[in-house]
Amino acid sequence: MSKQVLLCDDEIAILKAAEFKLKKAGFAVRCADNGETAWTMVCEAAPDLIISDYQMPRLDGIQLLARIRNYSVTKATPFILLTGKGFELDGEELRRTLNATELLPKPFSPRALLEKVISILGQPSCGV
Asked: If 34 and its partner were Cys, which of 58, 82, 102, 112 is the partner (CB 3.0–4.6 Å)?
């Protein structure tokens, strides 16, 4: 069975490019365009990995990450936080205080994201 990845970003072009790359590689991908929708999806079926933008409407990436870490089902789920170019976040601080797995600055290539996902989840069962 394919590893489940939840992608959350309010920039549809980024969401679709990342979704295409991950699906092509063999991962099962669900998408949300805001943090509140992502949280609902997590509660319905916990993914193996969550990738979320920092700046989003309704629930930002930090708030989503805090909920993920406080929910017993997803407490240890890997979480990649995407950040806008030039936006200053301390990656080490996020890893320490919220247990973020990775911090990936925007803009990023879908290939770079795929490499991070593979480094966390391993090779998908089919695909690349």
From this structure: 58
DSSP 2: P
What b/e sequence results for 89-104 when a residue is b if at least 16 CB atoms lie within 10 Å of its CB, and e otherwise?
A: beeeebeeeebbbbbe
Pick among 3.40.50.1820, 3.40.50.620, 3.40.50.2300, 3.90.1300.10: CATH of 4-121: 3.40.50.2300
pTM of the model: 0.90
